[in-house]
Specification:
It contains two helices and 14 strands; from the N terminus they run αβββββββαβββββββ. It is mostly beta strands.
Amino acid sequence: MRLLTTIILCLILLHSHAQDTLPNFQVINSKGRIFVAYYNPYGSARQVNIERSHDSTRNFTTINALTDPRTGTITFTDVAAPNDHMFYRIFIQLQGASYSFTPAKTPEILATPPPAVIQAEAAVSAPKRKPEWEPSTHIYTDDYGNVRVDFPLITGKKYVVRFFDDQQNFLFELPDVKERPLTIDKSNFLHAGWFNFVLYEDGVITERNKFLLSRDN
């Protein structure tokens, strides 16, 4: 009976530590792959971003952005991690202007990773899996290789779009979008490649994404 009780207690402890709840999160090094996993309890969350840096306090870059994220377990695979000792933190924005950053963490190696990490690892190893990037339906390149800006405009709202290069260096912005659709000539971006953008509605981020600009179009 005592042995059975001990086993049950161990199972309860394992389950309770299976997945950290925000603002706590886990960064796992599993067989050389880096996974960031957390449980999002905030039904009112507007934005949850995973950020990465070589430093523990500065120069963080967003590597995963979720607008209006669902509650539940989230697992992100950092397939582009430069090494296995980078620093990771999470940006959390709730309704309104309230936001916070978690403390930074480096990957740890666990004898038994959480179930969410095991599932994510299997997905990475599978021959077919969901793409790491999904094109935006609001800002994208058209058939001529120019950038098209087209999203619903609500009267009384202010919309700002900021553009960055693939290293998150600021390029330029559309300070007050009032017409749709808009077409931005590709010559404004100077070169081909990936570019990032952030869409704001009344100062609140509603989308972060990127697009691929090709000079061949």
